[in-house]
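Reposting from the mailing list since nobody answered there.

I have sequence plus structure tokens for a pair of proteins and want to know whether others read the tokens the same way I do. The first protein:
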Amino acid sequence: MTGSVAVMGTGIMGTGMARSLVRAGLDVTVWNRSADKARPLADDGAKVAADAAEAVTGADVVVTMLFDADAVAEVMQRALAATPEHAVWVQTSTVGLAGTQRLAELADRYGRGYLDAPVLGTKRPAEQGELIVLASGPRALEPQVAPVFEAIGSKTVWVGERIGDGHRLKLALNSWVLSITAATGQAIALARGLGVDPQLFLDTIAGGGTDSPYAQVKGRTMIAGEFPPAFSLAGAAKDAELIVDALREAGDDPSLMQAVHRLMSTAAAAGHADEDMAAVVYAFR
């Protein structure tokens, strides 16, 4: 049974997940490289640790939600030795297939349980405890992590016992999400460029076979020109590159995702990296 949880990384996703864990009655300690991003969680009932090793001391479960594999590895190389022997590391950051293997090997060197458990969802589902957890690894660890998964998610999909299968499914899902976002940006930009009200694009597909709730949400954001980050463009560009790598590993043609990656990288480089990924619409201008 899990009583104590450490959340490493309190960005957009980690903050929401930490609050969901606190609401579920778990003993939560948070840590972030930039301490000012972690301090507000004290008002929600979380303990705020001064360093990574302090955060994980005594934790039954350690949850990492950081930007990429390098960031996760750097933090956990410092923290793992301070974890109890029974601790389970739940790795929720999207780090790609090579990154997942690298981090699993790190956990193995310290003899700690490890689950590959990326999540599907953005800021609002994280805040409301409605993420979808894509878990892979030893099912024997499920009882220890179940309270954590139940707190942060509306559903847990156990993809397989093989470490990395959670990530394999996550990359397939993200390939769809990123493609829809980029295609919506193209349609909005094209309608506007041709002198047609882009809202008519969303109104026309609404409720039909070509409609998508995601297209509606991101499309409205694009039309409004306001991009508070639910998932940052920089993060989307990073994930697109990981998907390109996965497609190559699978022997599949990466051309579509390469185009998506180029568009998202272009918009990010134009000053929109920290905005929502819907800001990819700027790449079409």
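The second protein, same order (residues first, tokens after):
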Amino acid sequence: MRTSTLRESDVFGGGPVSAAVHALTGEVEPHGHDFLEVAVVGPGSGGHVTSRGERAVREGEVIVLRPGAWHGFTGCRGLTVANCCVSAGALRAELAVLHDIPALRHLLWTAPMAPGAHGVLVTRIDPAAAADAIEEIARLAAGPVTSGARIMGRLLTVLGTIADALPERPVTGASAPHPAVRATLAALELQPAHPWTLAELAGRVSLDPGHLGRLFRRHTGLPPLAYLARVRAERAAALLATTTLPAARVGAAVGWDDPTYFARRFRALAGLTPTEYRRRASGG
């Protein structure tokens, strides 16, 4: 099965958000992303392929893919899929505020970054709510919007329409992250290759390591070092797809100096070995 990688430089027109509504027929080859994608499924039929296998899609499904995750569609017959894509860099910068909204934190971070998810969340909302979300994505895709505030407003409308219809309630903290959690998230995102320990992270925010661990897990669903591993896997996926660096150097660049350990951790988090991921990312 061939896989390619969609890159921000090919999809985004210089802004932090890209959107489109597609009527799919036949096959959509498996492809990865170096950005975050939210796909809403409308009427039609087809199959959805991820690292966990193939399954039939249903109207109302919402598919969230973290950077580095891959998927594809098979046997599509008039299948409507609306895509709302968000720059990974923007999620770490001007759109990081989305992490403060519990429902969006669950949708975009906690659920797809959970152990065994391989960076993919598949859930389902009422088809009527999905139709509303598809309509909002179509509006977002309809024309150029240069105002950052207007882009944020339209993106929040899309994501809010989905989040309000989710059947599952967020299991992480219902409030904005504690300042110590916010500072720890920023440190891990800014320097994923640093050999962080829980003790060092706790010392930076003047908390007991156990207390920081509990606060962090309450708001993200993961312990700090497990969250770091997910961030490293996403950065490694981008390097594997967009550079010719040897896999061992990719691992070292994101903080995993031991090639064997890097291969094991990457496979556990992405569903493929680094070599397999690169081969599929190049369409081989």
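Reply #1 (J.P.):
I read it the same way you do. The two ends are 8 Å apart (CA to CA).
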